[in-house]
Amino acid sequence: DQQVKQNSPSLSVQEGRISILNCDYTNSMFDYFLWYKKYPAEGPTFLISISSIKDKNEDGRFTVFLNKSAKHLSLHIVPSQPGDSAVYFCAARETDSWGKFQFGAGTQVVVTP
Amino acid sequence: GEEVAQTPKHLVRGEGQKAKLYCAPIKGHSYVFWYQQVLKNEFKFLISFQNENVFDETGMPKERFSAKCLPNSPCSLEIQATKLEDSAVYFCASSQIREQYFGPGTRLTVT
């Protein structure tokens, strides 16, 4: 049973524009969420996180929004750069289940010139 | 070290053979996690350690999989009698507070 879903397997965006990646979850016990970026043949790299007590967290070009009532989070990348081309994974963790993250299937982002 | 190290990078085993994977967490990190990624799909949590103690092993197929984190040694994940379905990339991650830092993975191919 997949509790974290990334329904868009791929996204193509022009350099300089905004990339919006979406993630939905079904488990209301999730209280901490992360986004990872992954290049081929490398491990995922932590990008940004958000706790369920917040609805927004910003770090440079990356902003994560959390809508708890809709069980939805999104990652905005502004402006998109060629180096952002990678697979992005959304991950979530239950309260009292520290360290055991559930991952989505990933979204492949391609930033075109 | 400042990065999670995993060895070997690639491992090929015949069905039924044993496979052993190693992970050296970032120095100072108390928590180690193992994940399995099959065919570029989502990561499946296997097991986590707090220092040398098992923290959460709810994802482990216990019949053939085992893992250890002993003091002053790399952590290890061992698969006895590998099956074709064990072919995957196995990622190790370490953590001290919240965010997990991943190693580059070990690609296991079972033939």
What layout of secondary structure does this protein have?
The complex is a heterodimer of chains A (113) and B (111).
Chain A: E1 4-5, E2 10-14, E3 19-25, E4 30-38, E5 45-51, E6 56-59, E7 62-67, E8 72-77, E9 86-94, E10 101-103, E11 107-112
Parallel strand pairs in A: 2-11
Antiparallel strand pairs in A: 1-3, 3-8, 4-5, 4-9, 6-7, 7-8, 9-10, 9-11
Chain B: E1 5-7, E2 10-13, E3 19-24, E4 31-37, E5 43-50, E6 53-56, E7 65-68, E8 75-79, E9 88-95, E10 101-102, E11 106-110
Parallel strand pairs in B: 2-11
Antiparallel strand pairs in B: 1-3, 3-8, 4-5, 4-9, 5-6, 7-8, 9-10, 9-11
Task: State the main characteristics.
heterodimer; A: 113 residues; mainly beta; six-stranded mixed beta sheet; five-stranded antiparallel beta sheet; globular; B: 111 residues; four-stranded antiparallel beta sheet; 50% strand
Question: If you compute it from the alpha carbons, what radius of gyration of chain A comes out, rounded to the nearest whole angstrom?
Answer: 13 Å
Percent in helix of chain B: under 10%
What amount of the residues of chain B lies in strands? over 45%
Q: How confident is the prediction overall: mean pLDDT of chain A?
A: 94
Find the structural class of chain B using helix and strand composition. Answer: mainly beta
Instruction: Give the biggest sheet of chain B.
Output: 7 strands, mixed
Give the oligomeric state of the chains in this entry, treating copies of one chain as homo and distinct chains as hetero. heterodimer
> Radius of gyration of chain B in whole Å, from Cα?
13 Å
| SSE pattern of chain A | EEEEEEEEEEE
* SS summary, helix count of chain A: 0
Strand tally of chain B, please?
11
| Average pLDDT score of chain B | 93
Number of DSSP strand runs of chain A = 11
What's the tally of helices of chain B? Answer: 0
Question: Which protein chains make the most extensive interface, counting residues with beta carbons within 8 Å of the other chain's beta carbons?
Answer: A-B, 25 and 26 residues
